[in-house]
Amino acid sequence: MATQRLTMAQAMICFLKNQYVERDGKEQPFFAGCFGIFGHGCVGGIGQALQQYPEFRYYQTRNEQAMVHTATAYAKTKNRLQTFVCTSSIGPGATNMVTGAATATVNRIPVLLLPGDIFVRRNVDPVLQQVESDSSQNLSANDVFKPVSRYWDLISRAEQIILALPEAMRVLTSPANTGAVTLALPQDVQAEACDYPEELFAKRVWHIPRNRADLKAVEKAAQWIRSSKRPMIVAGGGVIYSEATEILKRFADQTGIPVAETMAGKGSLRFDHPLQLGAMGVTGTLAANRIAHDADLVIGIGTRYSDFTSASKTAWQDPDVRFINVNVAEFDAFKHGALPLVGDARETLGELFPHLEGYAVAAAHKERAMALHTEWEAEVDRIYAIRNQPLTSQGELIGAVNELGSPEGIMVCAAGSLPGDLHKLWRSRHPKNYHLEYGYSCMGYEIAGGLGVKMAAPERDVYVMVGDGSYLMLANEIVTSVQEGYKLIIALFDNHGFKSIGGLSRSMGQEGFGTRYIYREDGILAGDTAGENVRPLPVDLAANARSLGAHVFECTTYDEFVAAFKKAHETDRTTVIYIQNDRYVGVPGYDSWWDVHVAEVSEMEGVREARKQWEAMRAKERYYLKGQS
Ligand SMILES: Cc1ncc(C[n+]2csc(CCOP(=O)(O)OP(=O)(O)O)c2C)c(N)n1
Ligand SMILES: [Mg+2]
Q1: Per the omega criterion (within 30 degrees of 0), is the bond before 29 cis?
Q2: Could you tell me which of 142, 314, 421, 497 has the fewest CB atoms within 10 Å of its CB?
Q3: Residue of 437, 443, 596 best suited for mutating to test ligand 1, as the one with most atoms within 8 Å of CB
Q4: Distance (Å, rounded) from C-alpha 329 to C-alpha 238?
Q5: How confident is the model at residue 626 (pLDDT cuts 50, 70, 90)?
Q6: Is pLDDT at 629 greater than 70 in this prediction?
Q7: Ligand 1 pocket, 541 CB below 6 A?
Q8: Ligand 1 centroid vs 494 CA: distance in angstroms?
Q9: Is the CB of 500 under 6 A from ligand 1?
Q10: Is the pLDDT of residue 148 over 80?
Q11: Ligand 1 in contact with 468 (CB < 6 A)?
């Protein structure tokens, strides 16, 4: 057997740079390179290997959590067909990646994480940053990656990667099982040499399958659709990853079944399609939520049915409602007692089509959906046209970005009050137009994620929309975007704290406690009852962004924002448009609800009142078991 003597880290990079994927005959390298922050836990191993093989491009980042977000956003933009490796030192560098790993895994997005780990040989223990245990010498901080990784391994001998790496690739390229894959790499083993078989470094192309659903189940699904009276489609992220948007449109056109979209599925159908109901669920539109309320059949395509989609299981109120779920993941396909079509969205819709020849929904159902679509569009117009004084409203700013931004651009967001408003108001013009990380809704994803989107689609304008809270959590990748020349346009909305959780808190009778960025007065951190009678903090986020290398426009009015937004397209680097918006002017909810538990007993009257309302809504929560009978 021909062998090559390499360190484990060198062998790993040689292997990774030769992994390709192919779907629909299109082939590409699976890894676009490696993000990393070096420390003693990786510098002599992976760090040395990356230096030795510059063709596998290494990118510095500022924070390990952020680099995993960047990789995740990149892979999401590439429909999961390409991603990055992320490498860190041991201890804090490694555990900083845990939040990123969870974000990737929840969203079913592939990222390969290579945290350094403590010495296997142990003689110099405890090494710097080792979390010691007095109950086992076989515990490491990297064990915390287990619940947030789809595959986890500890490489304690150099030759183990010969079997571990193909397993990692199997999971990363699996449409059903993908997520974060973590290979913990002890710092001594990384630098150890081994005679590796040459075959390990041969080019390997992983075929991404388009698995098909069981044909009997497809036939049954067609019968269910034909016998339904008020069917609806819920389009999730799977529609976009599978590139099923074209066929979804034809499916809606032919059958007349209206389409609602989840956070990850928004953009599945253009906003102006007459059967577009818009956002589904807690942050849904009046069109989607009213059609859902009465639906007797829900065809979920590529959705995992988070509580935001199901409005905490209150969205569908017909006692006989049934579900057909098209999903690559068996786990999701079986949710809600559904008739499971376990398969690729594009392929499965294609197989359903011939069984539905000549079928269309009742005219009244289609007309109702179309009328609600029109009603909803008018509501968006109304909110876009608000010109709130003295501080702008978020809805009008969303309108400005949506209408003045490039129609080919990509808007990126993740947490705060923006996602809910965007889900309702954003008019998606192409499947990648709306990039929301709302599986983990991780504050701090926005700018790091925006960088990943721009790296994946450098030809498009990338619009990051971020609140002051998220910005303060993780804005540092502005530096990386400047360093690498990936320009982002960042709209930074400052409302001195948490508009989102403030509103939630008030709705629970808790007066916005702990959600404002203000000084403590007489030992008390005031909530909203203090009104404007508070002292804001002397924080200057515009100056902060400037200090990180961004070009900054500071605005106070809507007109200034519009002018700055236009000018931002002409600057030579990442540009932040800073504006304050009103904490209290929000986009309302439309026939929906989110279950957030309210205290059962309290001295506070507002809480007791909220609890009564919560109990009334809680009673509407359903189990969806009908399909099983
Ligand atoms: C890492 C993380 N911590 C906490 C939360 C809970 N959370 C959701 S929104 C939010 C406030 C966001 O504030 P900001 O970015 O200013 O947006 P705004 O609510 O003001 O629109 C918090 C704390 C979260 N989603 N992610
Ligand atoms: Mg805020």
Answers
A1: no
A2: 497
A3: 443
A4: 10
A5: confident
A6: no
A7: no
A8: 12
A9: yes
A10: yes
A11: yes
Is residue 126 reached through a cis peptide bond, with omega within 30 degrees of 0 on the bond before it?
yes
Q: For residue 364, give both structure tokens.
A: 């009244």
Q: Is residue 573 within 8 Å of 549, Cβ to Cβ?
A: yes
- Share above pLDDT 90 across residues of the chain, in percent, rounded to a whole number: 99
Q: What is the per-residue DSSP string for 540-597?
A: -HHHHHHHTT-EEEEE-SHHHHHHHHHHHTTSSS-EEEEEEB-SS--PPP-S-----P
Instruction: Give the tokens for residue 500.
Output: 């989102």
Ligand 1 atom index nearest CA of 471: 15
d(C-alpha 73, C-alpha 70), whole Å:
5
What value does the mean pLDDT take over residues 187-211? Answer: 98
- Work out the number of other CB atoms within 10 angstroms of the CB of residue 249: 17
Cβ of 442 below 6 Å from ligand 1? yes
Q: What is the pLDDT of residues 97-131, one digit of tens each?
A: 999 999 999 999 999 999 999 999 999 999 999 99
| Summary count for the chain: helices (H), strands (E) | 24, 23
- Whole-angstrom CA distances from 512 to 420, 444, 499 are 18, 22, 9
What's the CA-to-centroid distance between 541 and ligand 2, angstroms?
12
- As given in the structure block, the two tokens for residue 556 are 């106070």
Our answer on whether the CB atom of 65 is closer than 6 Å to any ligand 1 atom is no
Contact call for residues 490 and 575 (beta carbons, < 8 A): yes
Q: State the DSSP H helix or E strand holding residue 420, giving kind and residue range, or none if neither.
A: helix 418-425
Extract the tokens encoding 386: 């608000």
Per-residue b/e over 41-67, b at no fewer than 16 CB within 10 Å? bbbbbbbbbbeebeebebbebbbbbbb
> What are the DSSP E strand ranges found in 367-420?
410-413
- The token duo for 445 is 């994803």
Which residue's CA is the closest to the ligand 1 atom numbered 2? 443
Q: What is the pLDDT of residue 284?
A: 98
Write the DSSP assignment of 292-320 as a string of letters: HHH-SEEEEES----HHHHTTTTS---TT
Binned at pLDDT 50, 70 and 90, residue 627 comes out as: confident
Sign, CA dihedral 195-197-201-206, equals negative
Residue nearest atom 10 of ligand 1, based on CA coordinates: 416
Summarised one tens digit per residue, pLDDT across range 63-86 is 999 999 999 999 999 999 999 999
Ramachandran angles phi, psi of 487, nearest 5°: -80, 130
* Residue bearing the CA closest to ligand 1, atom 5: 443
- Sequence-separated (6 or more) residues with CB below 8 Å from residue 355: 218, 219, 221, 222
